[in-house]
Amino acid sequence: MSTLSHTRSRSRDISSPKSPLKSPHIHSPLLSPPPRSPSPPSQTFHAASILPSVPTPSLLESVAGAAHYSGVKLDPEAIAQKRRRRSLSAHRASEDGEVGSAAHQRVLDDLKELFCCRPTTEIFERSWRKDATFQDPLSVCTGYDEYAAQWYGLAKLCSKSETLSSRVMSSTSIPNRIVYHQKQEYTFAVIGRTKVIESIVIVDLDENDKIVTLTDQWGGKELPTRYGSGLLRLLNAKITPWLIRVPKLES
């Protein structure tokens, strides 16, 4: 009887083994504690700089260029004034009747005397080169004998010549040039009639501020060259010295 009880007890132990979940030596991942969250990132604060940021000239030019290409409207007059200020040392331009230098004013004064029929050898020695060129709608002159004959001939043709108005359009050092507008009234000696001629006078000077080329454009128009007019202007320049006596220069 005791043997039978012992056998049944042993069979119960074999048929119902212990559950592994109850074993203290076995750990399941489902039962392990969750991992700890990382600590929050640290932040470092720096004090603001006391000095304000100053834009450099190159930065300003870059911004201006970007503004141009981005469609921002710029003031063209302000840009033009800045460019004129930058080039003022190399290129002096006068506006509103101003003259760029005292030498240019001297040339203008001498030209006024010539247009008013008061030519002198002092004017040509002071303000003209001997090989200078003079052009107007009636002649193309090269050299003192030819262009001086035109001025002395004008003094014989007109009893009076008066400058009604004159305005300097530009007076520059590079190139060395004067451009001005004038309104001149001529009174012819024989018939007594008067004629008013408005013209644009372009004067190119050399390094000594002497006239190299003078172009007198009547009405501001280009000088005639078509239909034989150029040949007639050349003939006038060659014939006039035979008819008009020109004083010799001292130098």
From TrEMBL:
<protein>
    <submittedName>
        <fullName>Uncharacterized protein</fullName>
    </submittedName>
</protein>
<feature type="compositionally biased region" description="Pro residues">
    <location>
        <begin position="31"/>
        <end position="41"/>
    </location>
</feature>
<feature type="region of interest" description="Disordered">
    <location>
        <begin position="1"/>
        <end position="50"/>
    </location>
</feature>
<feature type="region of interest" description="Disordered">
    <location>
        <begin position="83"/>
        <end position="102"/>
    </location>
</feature>
<dbReference type="InterPro" id="IPR032710">
    <property type="entry name" value="NTF2-like_dom_sf"/>
</dbReference>
<feature type="compositionally biased region" description="Low complexity">
    <location>
        <begin position="16"/>
        <end position="30"/>
    </location>
</feature>
